[in-house]
Amino acid sequence: MTSRQRRRAGTGPGLGLGAGTTGIIIVALMAALAVVCALSVLFGSRAVTFDQVVYAFTSSADGTGGTDGIVSEVVRLRVPRTVLGILVGAALAVSGALMQGVMRNPLADPSILGLNSGAAFAVVCAIATIGLSTPAQYMIVALIGGAAAAILVWVLGSIGRTGATPLKFTLAGAVLGSALASLTSAIMLPRADVISTYRFWQVGGISGARFNLMAPVVPMLLIGFILAVFSARQLNMLALGDQMAAGLGVSVTRARAIAWAGAVLLSAGSTALAGPIGFVGLVVPHAARIIVGSDYRRIIGLCMLIGPLLLVASDVIGRVISRPGDVEVGIVTALIGAPVFIALARTGKMTEV
Fold this sequence. Notes:
Blueprint: H1 3-8, H2 19-42, H3 50-58, H4 70-103, H5 115-130, H6 135-158, H7 166-188, H8 192-202, H9 211-214, H10 218-238, H11 242-247, H12 252-274, H13 280-292, H14 296-320, H15 329-346
Helix pairs in contact: 2-4, 2-14, 3-4, 4-10, 4-12, 4-13, 4-14, 5-6, 5-7, 5-8, 6-7, 6-12, 10-12, 10-14, 13-14, 13-15, 14-15
């Protein structure tokens, strides 16, 4: 096996860091995630001191009595918001890594491959026809739309004697995404009421987090994470090329199907919970590759740290710069992710997948 093949199979280093240095970076990322989670609980529409946060977690009050709303503010609003940020950030990052591995395309992510367009199209259709208006309704419809788009991309990418190939998947996702985006615009333009309702979901955010809304989707995300971990070794083999992977005993179609299923569960679930949030699934896997190399077992693990760190930090930034209002996290991730992605591309740091 050549050095190039070793890198593509996951044995090549990212920055050439030793195990000790990589461990220090992982510990630093964990510490940074803990810090931004604490900041997420501290900062909001009203000033809350550390002592008040401690009281909110230790008091048995329900936040409606003498606590002046502190318990309700912290526990009922900010904690679910932080938890949702962790879940969605990890799900989007891991989903992006899986899609890039399946497609062998460094630009693959849920938005580019049509999943977000499928969710958006379903939401717009439901708003226009049945008057969709509640977060729970958005979640169900977006989940169905994203999953349906993913299945359609798989079917279109598998047509033909050659079966499923990365190029066909990418083309199918791009074409389907463009078509659904056009149809979404065609439905919205004549309907001002649809545009008014849809625009709040379209931005992508976690400000409406509630544990009861998250609960139905969490099992699906857990299954997606399990499939991602299970697929990591197969993705390393697929990076060598279909023929080489088959020669090493990997069922190429089965490996792609499992990884794709995990990516769909994670991306559709996160889109259902928080709307279409861009750049997390695109940028985070590249950042992970720079640190740990091309081994998907390490990439997926690191994505579970960097994704939540980026999303929760973006949410905190959005709250700080516009207090007492909020800038939705989807806007902040775009403002952060776009320059980072351009910098990676210009400096040649977008490593092969």
